[in-house]
Amino acid sequence: MKNCPNCNAANDDSAAFCSNCNAPLNGQPVYRPSATANPWNHTADYDKQDIADTKIFALCCYLLSVPGILISLLARPKSRYLEYHIRLSLKFMLLNVALGLVMGALAWTVVVPIAGAILMAVLLVLRVIAIVDVCQGKAIDPWLIRNIPFLG
Description:
The protein has about 150 residues and is mostly helical.
């Protein structure tokens, strides 16, 4: 008798697959996709119609910064998808301001302006990725930004 590595059910020695769960008995691991393959992808949390109606306003948040956020808040105040992108855009804006302040305060050093310029470039790339996600109707927390707890 062989025991199934997946469910521990007893099977005949000649069996290739488990009679209980159909897992292969040759020792190969069973692939089980997780319930959420990407825990930072929140696209399924939002209504498709809401996404389609507010894409342009979500783009305004990233492209126009504060005026874009204000336009979005005035145009569609009750859109959950738009609220997500407004919060994400605010995170980008606050990180840029904080980084600019640190770079300005420590401009006399050699390392801080170089590191700050690299971080500014990373933030720009992440903002472009967020813009592409909006164009595709997605809501994915970008790397580096997803670990910032403020603004939900």
